[in-house]
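User: Working on a comparison across species. This one is Tetraspanin from Piaya cayana. Can you predict its structure so I can line it up against the others?
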Amino acid sequence: MGVEGCTKCIKYVLFVFNFIFWLAGGIILGVALWLRHDSQTTNILYLQLGDKQAPNTFYVGIYILIAVGAVMMFVGFLGCYGAIQESQCLLGTFFTCLVILFACEVAAGIWGFVNKDQIAKDVKQFYDQAFQQALLAESEANNGRAVVKTFHETLDCCGPDNVGATFTPLWTNDLCPKKENAWKTFLEVSNCHKKIDELFSGKLYLIGIAAIVVAVIMIFEMILSMVLCCGIRNSSVY
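Assistant: Here's the predicted structure for Tetraspanin from Piaya cayana:
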């Protein structure tokens, strides 16, 4: 005997929420894959300075997002099927998966909040090392010049967050995006520390919005799944 009345309404509301949850998982998976292959981040984070690789902290977060998106799609499908079939077993499994996923999301959010400044800081330190090697003409052995040029061309920036370095002839004439003259370059092109901060803060802001939306949907789904599960149990008594 199927559920009736308000419980039946909850059944279809839960189905709709799970369908939205499934779509959200697909969107997060797509956004994560886009961030993973975005030209700005890949150009910078695949760089190598001598035997030192660019920091990969950002990619750790992206791989977590890819896994979360895939799991969300699976859990969303499980919830949709469990709601339509009115299966207490599937709904209980769905609720357990949601709790685990919610806990993982909270843990990932805390990790991201703690490391949000460290990501940009590590990349800026990597850039500064390459910039110093380029200025000291060590680029033949350590490819510092090529690394610096990649930063400058990808982010349309010029030089570190250091006013004294901006007057170095090598900085204005050889390593930076070409403008009509060096003075125009100094006025129009931002320093690379600022651009690195903007690059990662913008992407983390996008990830944060998606995480908040998903967390709200999860809370509603946990409540609805338990209410529906109780309704199914009560209806089976009669």
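For your comparison, note: The chain has a mean pLDDT of 76.

User: Helpful, thanks.
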